[in-house]
Every structure is written in structure tokens, then in C-alpha cells.
């Protein structure tokens, strides 16, 4: 069930990003869902290998090279999936940032639990001394 939720969040993020950036387009719902599935696979399997191979670049750039890796994963998926087009690297770069942020915020609402990171303490009445 959690897999389907992550897949849906990624698909929703890709769909929203296609409205924000005119350089990203999908020809059908099938290409959108396949792109979300393959992006999840690329982030789970290929991305960690690339991160390990580029540790020196990541350290020199204080971690900013990870943004480049995210953009490259998005471009890789766009070359594999027919019907998913990205106009260039910079579109993929900024779109990957937005996809990450959207996935984070939607995931916070979907995967609520007792041990979540953002705990809001209950409001107290009166003055605490």
C-alpha cells in the first residue's frame, strides 16, 4: 500500500510540475504513470550508485551536486519513456527541486504517524511560569 502511495505522490508531483514548467509535457496518462514508476526505480537503484561514484564532486560542491544528479535522473526517465518530454537540463534541474519539495510536503500529510518529524505541541491555556 505504501508503494502505491509513493507512486501516486510522484505522479501527482510530475503532473503539477508539467503545469508549472512549459518545457515538461506528457502525451497521455500512461506516460505520466510510467514516468512516475521509472523515476521511483531510478531514484532507488541508479541514483545511489551515481552518488557513490561522485562523492568527491558532492563534497567539493557542499552537496549541491546532488541537485544535478536529481536532474539527470529526470532526464534519464524522459529519454526512456515515450510521451514524456523535457526541453533541457535547466528545466529538469528546477523541476527536480519542485518535485522533491512537492513530494516532501504531500508525503508529510499522507504518511502521518506518531513519530513524525514535525510535531506541533498542543496549545496551553494560561501563562506558563
UniProtKB/TrEMBL annotation:
Domain of life (superkingdom): Bacteria
Name this polypeptide is given: Putative membrane protein
Pfam families documented for this protein: Phage_holin_4_2
Keywords, ordered alphabetically: Membrane, Transmembrane, Transmembrane helix
Family matches, as PANTHER family: SLR0284 PROTEIN
Residue ranges crossing the lipid bilayer per the database entry: 6-25, 32-53, 59-77, 89-111
